[in-house]
């Protein structure tokens, strides 16, 4: 079994776009056969993150690659998850 695709969601409390993004992510993850680990991080809990992201939340990262800001598009997320699943655990060759 391969490692799960890692999704990191930078968000904040009382953010309707953040809630909507999480709903879309949950729905897409439930609808795919890709193993996924989702971590939600409150940017306001860390001064550096608050400075980095400011009002630019939600910000979604998939396997350390910036994927979405503000809105998550379900079809595009499915495509990105499938592509990421095909590269998880693969070692680059020289």
What report would you give on this structure?
The chain has one domain: Glutaredoxin (3-Layer(aba) Sandwich), CATH 3.40.30.10. 38% of the residues lie in helices and 24% in strands. It has 3 helices and 4 strands. It has a 4-stranded mixed sheet with strand order 2-1-3-4. Strand 1, helix 1 (16-30) and strand 2 (36-42) form a beta-alpha-beta unit. The radius of gyration is 14 Å and the shape is globular. It starts with a strand and ends in a 7-residue tail after the last helix.
What brief labels describe this structure?
globular, four-stranded mixed β-sheet, Glutaredoxin, 3 helices, alpha+beta, 4 strands, 94 residues
Radius of gyration, in angstroms, nearest whole number: 14 Å
Reported by name, the CATH topology is Glutaredoxin
CATH architecture: 3-Layer(aba) Sandwich
* Average pLDDT level: 92
User: Could you say which structural class the secondary elements and strand pairing correspond to?
Assistant: alpha+beta
Describe the biggest sheet? 4 strands, mixed
Question: What is the count of distinct domains?
Answer: 1
What spatial order of strands do you see in the largest sheet? 2-1-3-4
Give the number of helices. 3
Number of strands: 4
Helix content: 25-40%
Quick one: CATH superfamily?
Answer: Glutaredoxin
H/E element string?
A: EHEHEEH
Instruction: Choose one word for the global shape.
Output: globular
Distance between the termini: 25 Å
What amount of the residues lies in strands?
15-25%
